[in-house]
Design goal:
9 helices
Length: 202
């Protein structure tokens, strides 16, 4: 039995050692997944900056945040510039911190009251009262579309759904950014790694 365990451990160590050559792949894919999402979010705020500031500051129909112009500018910088930095893997750990903070604000100030689900999926065990209330609304929308529109054409690229706007996406992005905080940009695949090699060589 001990000989078998030693053999298994030996193979395991070999596999782990060989995987180290590819350990930069996962951070690279996370960066390339997150970058366009963050860049788009930042760009949307840039092109409608006045509206963004108003939404950040208004306590009635917005977030009611203090110093809304400053908060909006910081969000734009974190998302747009941070997203660009993620593409090339530059200052990845530093970039991850303000982006994680942005995701926390999004979760707590924007999405929290809506629960977990991003979409109103009534079959999910995470469906809350808000999601269940969307069922008759969705049925009514489908009924109207079938009666007054070309339903087959309208749903030709996907079924009709109701956005729940829960914390699901923001929480997922937070976890991905947290991973990058610990891994960095990735071995061989980031400017962080190349710059570290260059500094070590000089």
């Amino acid at each position: 039995m001990s000989a078998l365990l030693a053999t298994v451990n030996g193979y395991y160590d070999v596999v782990v050692q060989r995987l180290r050559s590819f350990e930069g792949l996962a951070p690279l894919l996370i960066r390339l997944y997150l970058a366009p999402i963050m860049i788009q979010a930042g760009w949307n705020k840039i092109v409608a900056f006045d509206n963004t500031v108003a939404w950040f500051g208004n306590p009635d129909w917005g977030l009611g945040l203090p110093f809304p112009a400053l908060m909006a500018a910081l969000a734009v910088g974190a998302e747009f510039l941070g997203g660009i930095a993620l593409i090339v893997g530059l200052a990845t750990r530093l970039v991850a911190i303000p982006l994680m903070f942005t995701m926390v604000v999004a979760m707590t100030a924007v999405h929290w009251d809506n629960g977990w689900l991003a979409l109103s999926d009534s079959t999910s065990w995470l469906a809350n009262e808000r999601v269940m209330e969307a069922i008759p609304r969705k049925a009514k929308v489908i009924e109207i579309l079938k009666e007054h529109g070309n339903y087959r054409w309208l749903t030709g690229r996907g079924s009709i759904t109701v956005l729940n706007n829960g914390i699901e996406f923001a929480a997922t992005y937070f976890v991905m950014l947290l991973t990058l905080l610990f891994t960095g940009g990735g071995r061989y695949t980031s400017l962080d790694y190349l710059l570290a090699r260059w500094r070590a060589a000089t």
